[in-house]
Design the sequence.
């Protein structure tokens, strides 16, 4: 039966057929079945051991008993006349459902991510990844085959646990529609994280065997960290957005509305206060599930843009410049949706709350633009080809050098990064214009100016590093930018120059906004001028190198020499 299924798959997706044929061996299937069944049996045994047992005392208290004496205390057990106690089986099955749900989320996301990254790493080491790139199939077909085939044994383990999970949900009085919706959200989360794992596997091959551990380890820390956060997880700032990437937050909703555990308070806690554009998306299970699916779908779309570009052409940039402008716009819209509703208290008025949220937006934007610098910056060969094209066909270009810098695939990324900064700045300025109080607006504008120039400097440094002749250009560029981000705060801290006492110096660090409330206008002006001069010098250096490379390559071609000698 399995063999016939595999053969039918081969007609629809040859890559999926290749993955299934290599993994669905009798020994592997037996191990997967054993792990799934033994795991379910062990879980049931653990929960069975938690049921009340007569201990000779008059009063027995247990979570699964039914007689609630007082709030926030374990219920007392009532004898059933048959030598046992009346059990709240609905609550018992609800706990089984919740445990299976959390286990499935961790297993599917973390283990599946590891398997996909590890598989691509092995394909690269064996040299078979290049054969896949040369295959007549589309990148979508090959990558879909990877998504469906590589974790097939994990899917088998999860599928065998599905009946118990489904029955536990129904016996726990959780509506069928919500159980099915939970499956849909989990599938959407797997699609996003598995797609991201494929992308990381393609672009991070230089990490070697450490690549799979790094990718799955980061995801494990994220999911575990989010799952361990208490009920007051909603803090009304852009960090709330991370909740939409965490499928574990849906489990308390399923338990909260239908659990018969009267001794426990609402497990969802602050999740119900989650808002986006002042809309209470956390008010109900359905609104939160819908927003999570939309969020997963949006970022899965962008991940696949990178997958389609770099699979068949590893030397291409991860994103096109035009794509990056739309990506930045989407990112800013989503981010500002969670920044509009700051937490307000007696010691934290509205103006302070808005400014704190603004600082968090700058943190997210720093991470975004570091990613854009890596995704948009072409390497030496691409820029050398572009410089030669400009030198040879200077008079026939349409739109001139500006059009090349804005849209060109092989042109330096500095100008495109600055355009993305302009898009983000316009969004932030429009938001700041709506602030009801002007107390922090000046500080916010200062922080935006310093951040824009600082990120532009990072982009210029990275692009110059990527134009070097060494074969280790990418690690060198990453190390250089990381040093510019990490070293200044460390040095300033060692010298006891805090943002409060020396805010002007912190304007040259990656976190200039932490000293905005005590900095003077002249310090900000000097920081912007200094960073702009640095950007200008770096841009002139890159322009000179590009001009020399283009002229040298053209001369080599005209004289009959190979341009490879110039690399």
Sequence:
């Amino acid at each position: 039966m399995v063999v016939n299924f595999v053969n039918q798959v081969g007609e629809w997706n040859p890559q999926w057929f290749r993955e299934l044929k290599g993994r669905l061996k009798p020994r592997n299937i037996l191990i997967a079945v054993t792990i799934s069944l033994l795991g379910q049996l062990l879980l049931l045994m653990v929960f069975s051991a938690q049921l009340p047992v007569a201990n000779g005392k008059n009063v027995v208290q247990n979570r699964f008993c039914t007689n609630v004496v007082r709030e926030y205390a374990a219920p007392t057990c009532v004898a059933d006349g048959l030598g046992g106690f009346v059990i709240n089986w609905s609550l018992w099955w609800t706990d089984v459902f919740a445990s299976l749900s959390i286990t499935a989320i961790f297993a599917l996301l973390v283990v599946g991510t590891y398997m996909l990254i590890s598989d691509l790493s092995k394909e690269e080491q064996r040299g078979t990844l290049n054969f896949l790139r040369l295959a007549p199939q589309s990148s979508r077909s090959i990558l879909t085959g990877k998504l469906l085939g590589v974790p097939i044994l994990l899917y088998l383990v999860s599928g065998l646990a599905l009946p118990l999970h489904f029955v536990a949900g129904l016996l726990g009085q959780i509506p069928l529609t919500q159980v099915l919706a939970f499956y849909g959200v989990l599938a959407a989360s797997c699609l996003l994280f598995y797609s991201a794992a494929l992308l990381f596997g393609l672009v991070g091959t230089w990490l070697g065997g450490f690549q799979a551990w790094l990718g799955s380890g980061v995801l494990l820390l994220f999911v575990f960290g989010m799952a361990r956060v208490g009920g007051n997880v909603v803090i009304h700032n852009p960090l709330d957005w991370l909740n939409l990437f965490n499928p574990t937050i849906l489990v308390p909703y399923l338990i909260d509305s239908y659990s018969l555990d009267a001794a426990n308070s609402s497990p969802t806690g602050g999740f119900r206060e989650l808002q986006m554009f002042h809309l209470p998306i956390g008010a109900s299970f359905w609104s939160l599930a819908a927003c999570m699916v939309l969020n997963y779908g949006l970022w899965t779309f962008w991940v696949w843009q990178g997958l389609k570009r770099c699979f068949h052409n590893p030397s291409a940039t991860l994103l096109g410049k035009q794509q990056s402008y739309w990506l930045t716009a989407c990112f800013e819209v989503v981010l500002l949706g969670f920044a509009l509703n700051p937490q307000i208290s007696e010691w934290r008025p509205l103006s302070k709350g808005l400014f704190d949220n603004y600082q968090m937006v700058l943190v997210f934007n720093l991470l975004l633009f570091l990613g854009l610098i890596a995704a948009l910056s072409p390497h030496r060969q691409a820029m050398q080809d572009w410089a030669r094209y400009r030198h040879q066909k200077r008079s026939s270009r349409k739109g001139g050098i500006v059009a090349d810098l804005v849209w060109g695939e092989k042109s330096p990324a500095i100008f495109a990064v600055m355009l993305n900064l302009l898009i983000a700045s316009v969004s932030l300025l429009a938001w700041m214009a709506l602030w009801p109080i002007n107390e922090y607006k000046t500080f916010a504008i200062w922080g935006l100016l310093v951040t824009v120039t600082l990120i532009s400097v990072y982009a210029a440094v990275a692009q110059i590093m990527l134009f070097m002749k060494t074969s280790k250009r990418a690690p060198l560029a990453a190390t250089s930018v990381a040093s510019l981000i990490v070293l200044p705060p460390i040095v300033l801290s060692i010298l006891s120059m805090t943002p409060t006492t020396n805010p002007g110096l912190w304007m040259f660090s990656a976190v200039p906004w932490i000293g905005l409330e005590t900095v003077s206008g002249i310090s900000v002006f000097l920081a912007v001028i200094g960073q702009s001069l640095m950007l200008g010098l770096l841009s002139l250096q890159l322009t000179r190198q590009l001009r020399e490379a283009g002229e040298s390559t053209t001369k080599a071609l005209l004289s009959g020499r190979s341009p490879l000698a110039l690399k």
Q: What stands out?
A: Residues 89-126 form the longest helix (38 residues). The chain has 20 helices and no strands.
